[in-house]
Each structure stands twice: as structure tokens, then as C-alpha cells.
Design a protein that fits this description.
The protein has three domains: 24-62 and 336-432, Outer membrane lipoprotein wza fold like; 63-115 and 207-306, Outer membrane lipoprotein wza fold like (Roll); 130-201, wza like domain (wza like fold, 2-Layer Sandwich), CATH 3.30.1950.10. It is built from 13 helices and 18 strands. It is elongated. The protein has 453 residues and is α+β, with helices and mostly antiparallel strands. A hairpin with a 5-residue loop joins strand 7 and strand 8 (217-220). Residues 79-105 are annotated as: Disordered. This is Polysaccharide export outer membrane protein.
């Protein structure tokens, strides 16, 4: 009997030890875990991405516009619940506003920054540009006589006239192309002509800026590359009280969202595109975030007025979804989200994520009271993220913090709303915690032995 009781208590202690090692409080996300060897494969609980310099360079800016869009869809889905048993409420069509969240054709912008293409930039002459042309040692061709103009206008047919050369095609060509063409045609009348060509006035191509800037403007595209940052600067900068940190760039039928916070505050030029003729940059204003809600409310109110019999039914439905709507409205208006910081941290809990300014991993840890240096495991800080609603498994980002270089990476790694930051404990701390759960069982065992003896 004595041996049987001893065996049962020992078995209980072992079970406690084993259970502890797999409990959520003791990190199963160990850098030596066999689960890590299965990273990026389908059918596992998560996929692992190690945070290193290459990963930092490849990370995409947080798309604020898409984040707001998802919130809108959730809000609208709640409202649409009231219409399932009747005709749907139709939202008014908007003719004169392009949504900053539309990203069709964004591939044409992706991965192209101003620095990538400035060295290869060329200006192509267009209709209505004015050219200045000099034929060296032949002032009679350069200095006008009487009322003749000193420059040459490119007509709507894309051509201009020059003495002895006739009509010259200019639109769609560079000044170097025009210069060579002129020299070739003047060779019949002039021995070895030397010609210089420049654009005296750029009138054919424009870029436009609107929204939360000091001076909404139209600027000419010239032989000096005009970038997104240049366009904002030459428009007086942003209006701080209306500025949301986001913009949309429309090129033809394609539109992409631009994270201006990363560009202007952190000098990230990955989206500092060189502008082309007809590009429209719109700096999103704070008021626009609530515009969609006003339109939806107006549509709902109009539908209720036209159908007074349904009024009571709609009011009852509205009560059922009021709490969810209120929560979403509050989140949109305050532009705040949450990041969860857990584990070996001095103040574990939630920290506020400011959409306007963004947040790095280092900032999230700092806002949670910094690392507990006595217990933190230098092999592992983990960020757990659901990349999209379509992902069946989360992505786990791992940052070893054994070196100063790693902490620099933490300052460059972008946190997103609803991320979970988990800081692991050292093996000795985990063992001490296991012993803390195991010792009561051992104490009972010793007490039992003393009683039986």
C-alpha cells in the first residue's frame, strides 16, 4: 500500500512537470522547437519568419487605407443585417470623389521609388511646349528678325517650324532627338552645323495635388524629376490639423495608397514615386474618414422615410447592432487600435496604436514598461500576426535580442494593430516556475512518507 501511494504521488508530480512544459505560460515558441523547422509549410499551427535585415527591407508599409476599409465593411455588414428580410438599401453613387482606398492596378507602382529611376529620367517633349534653339556661328537662324519670335512653339500636331529644316517632329521625343534631327536637316545648307536645343517653357504636362495641403496646386512636369515629396513641398506642406498621414496617387485608371508618415517622418522613399503627366495626388483629410458613414446614414434615413411601415422593425434591428457600431465608430474617430504585449515585460497588457504615427516593435515594448532584464530570454521576442482574414494560420515573427544589432532591427520592424508581442523567459526561470508547481507535490510525498514511517 505504501509503495502504491508513493508511485501515485510520483506519477502526479511527473504529470505536473510535463504539463507545465507545455502550458501556455511556458513558451512553446522556443528557438529550438521542432515546430520551427516546419516554418512556411502548410498544415502547421503557424509559419515562422525571422526578423533580420533582409526581412526589414522587404516589409510592406502598413496600409492605413485598407485598415479603414475593413472597418467600413464591418460597419456596413452590421447595417445590411437589417435589410436581409427586405429590399436592400442602396448607397448613393459618388461621381466626383476617388476613394483613397482603391488600389486597382497598384502593381504598376509597386517596388518603384524615386531613387530607383531618377538617374534614368528623361523628359519627352509635348504639345504646347516652347523650345529655344541655337545654331552656333549662325545668328541669323537664332536671333529673330523684326517681329519673329525668339522661340519655337510645338503645335497641336506635335511639330514646330525651323528655317531651312521645315517641320520638325517634337512631341514624344527628347531634346537630344530633336537636336540630332535638326543637325541632319541643316547639313544641306550649313557645313557641320552645331545645334543646341532646350525646353524654354514646360506647358504640355501637369501633375495635380489636393486635400490636406496648404496650397492645392497644379505643377508642370519638367526635365527635373518631380516626386511625391516634391509635389507636397511645393504646395506648402501638409495641414497638420487635417493631416491623416495617408494619400492616394491616381494614374489613369489606377490608384494606390501612399503612407506619408513613413515617407515624411521616417524618410522612407519606397513610395516617393516620380510623377507623370496627369498624375493626381490627394492627401487624405480627417473629415473624409467619416464621409462614408454620413452617406450610409443618409441612405438609411431616406429608406425609412419612404417606408414608414418598416420604421419600428428597423429600430428594433438597430438596437441589436448598436453596441458593435458604437465600438467601430469610436475606433475610427479616435484612429486608435490596440497591440497586446505579454510575457517577460514590466507592464504586460495592451498599448495604444496610433494609426497616424505608426508604431515599431521597440516602441511597443517601451510603452509596456520595457523588458524585464532579469527574466527575459535573449533568444526570443515573438510577434504573432494574422496577416489577413483569409489566412488559415498566423505568422510568427521571431527577433533574437542577444546583440545591439537586434535592437536596431526592433526599431525598424513595424507593428500593426491587433499584433501580439510575446517576450519569452529564460530556461532557468521556466524551470523555477515548474519547480514552484512541482514542490507542493513533493512536499505531500515527503509528509506521507513521514506519517507511514
Amino acid at each position: 500500500m505504501k509503495k502504491l501511494c508513493r508511485a501515485l504521488l510520483t506519477f502526479t508530480a511527473v504529470i505536473s512537470l510535463v504539463g507545465c512544459s507545455f502550458s501556455p505560460g511556458v513558451p512553446g515558441l522556443s528557438s529550438k522547437s521542432s515546430r520551427y523547422e516546419k516554418a512556411q509549410k502548410e498544415g502547421v499551427d503557424y509559419k515562422l519568419v525571422v526578423i533580420d535585415r533582409k526581412m526589414i527591407q522587404s516589409q510592406k508599409p502598413f496600409n492605413y487605407a485598407n485598415y479603414i476599409t475593413n472597418k467600413k465593411k464591418r460597419y456596413q455588414s452590421y447595417a445590411s443585417d437589417t435589410e436581409k428580410s427586405s429590399s436592400p438599401i442602396r448607397k448613393p453613387h459618388r461621381n466626383n470623389h476617388t476613394s483613397p482606398t482603391k488600389t486597382t492596378g497598384a502593381v504598376s507602382f509597386a517596388g518603384v521609388s524615386a531613387d530607383d529611376v531618377k538617374s534614368n529620367y528623361q523628359y519627352f517633349i509635348g504639345d504646347r511646349d516652347i523650345l529655344s534653339i541655337t545654331v552656333w556661328d549662325h545668328p541669323e537662324l537664332t536671333i529673330p528678325a523684326g517681329d519673329a519670335p525668339a522661340t519655337h512653339d510645338v503645335g497641336n500636331d506635335g511639330k514646330f517650324y525651323f528655317p531651312y529644316a521645315g517641320k520638325i517632329q517634337a512631341t514624344g521625343r527628347t531634346v537630344e532627338d530633336v537636336r540630332k534631327d535638326l543637325e541632319k536637316k541643316l547639313q544641306t545648307f550649313i557645313a557641320k552645323p552645331q545645334v543646341s536645343v532646350r525646353v524654354a517653357s514646360f506647358r504640355s504636362q501637369k501633375a495635380y495635388i489636393s486635400g490636406a495641403v496648404q496650397q492645392p496646386n497644379t505643377l508642370a512636369i519638367s526635365d527635373t524629376p518631380l516626386t511625391v515629396r516634391d509635389l507636397i513641398s511645393r504646395s506648402g506642406g501638409v495641414i497638420s490639423r487635417k493631416y491623416t498621414g495617408q494619400a492616394s496617387l491616381q494614374r489613369g485608371n489606377n490608384t494606390i495608397s501612399i503612407d506619408l508618415n513613413r515617407m515624411l517622418k521616417f524618410n522612407d522613399n519606397r513610395q516617393n514615386f516620380i510623377l507623370r503627366n496627369g498624375d493626381r495626388l490627394h492627401v487624405v483629410e480627417i473629415d473624409e474618414l467619416d464621409e462614408w458613414k454620413k452617406e450610409l446614414d443618409q441612405a438609411i434615413n431616406k429608406e425609412l422615410i419612404l417606408n414608414p411601415i418598416r420604421l419600428q422593425f428597423e429600430l428594433e434591428k438597430e438596437k441589436a447592432i448598436a453596441r458593435q457600431k458604437k465600438e467601430l465608430e469610436r475606433e475610427l474617430k479616435s484612429e486608435q487600435a490596440k497591440v497586446f504585449v505579454m510575457g517577460e515585460i514590466n507592464k504586460p497588457g495592451t498599448v495604444k496604436y496610433q494609426i497616424e504615427d505608426g508604431m515599431t516593435l521597440a516602441e511597443a515594448i517601451n510603452d509596456a514598461g520595457s523588458l524585464n532584464e532579469d527574466t527575459v530570454n535573449p533568444k526570443g521576442i515573438f510577434v504573432i500576426r494574422q496577416e489577413s482574414s483569409n489566412d488559415s494560420i498566423p505568422t510568427v515573427y521571431q527577433l533574437p535580442i542577444a546583440s545591439v544589432h537586434s535592437m536596431l532591427l526592433a526599431e525598424q520592424f513595424d507593428i500593426r494593430p491587433r499584433d501580439i508581442v510575446y517576450v519569452t523567459a529564460t530556461p532557468s526561470i521556466r524551470w523555477n516556475r515548474v519547480l514552484g508547481l512541482l514542490l507542493p507535490s513533493l512536499t505531500i510525498l515527503n509528509t506521507f512518507e513521514n506519517l507511514t514511517n
